[in-house]
Amino acid sequence: MKSKKKLIVYIGNFVFPMGDAVAKRALGLGLSFADIGYSVAFIGESKDVPIGKISEEKVYGEFKYCSIHKAQSAKEHYQYRNDLKNIKNNS
To answer: How far apart are CA 2 and CA 40, in angstroms?
Structure first.
């Protein structure tokens, strides 16, 4: 019987997959985790995603990813907690 890979969800302030240096670093770490047997998914940020929403799931290579809203102001940054709750509720 084949065991299911453990999943690592990498959440951060990056524009996955190649939108900025942080995303490229996250991708490199994801490749390393995949090499040692983990399944990896990413949740980054995008200014195109409305506040409180999660983008459609997409695929880049072997990785699934989506985005939450990228804060454009201090008020929006404070609302980031709501986006994290939304992620938890959708998982």
So the answer is: 18
Helices (H) and strands (E) in the chain, counts: 3, 4
**71/45 Cα distance (integer angstroms):** 8
Pairing of strands 63-69, 7-11: unpaired
- End-to-end Cα, the chain, rounded Å: 26
pLDDT in tens, 57-83: 999 999 999 999 888 888 877 776 777
Q: What is the rounded distance in angstroms from the CA atom of residue 72 to the CA atom of residue 33?
A: 31
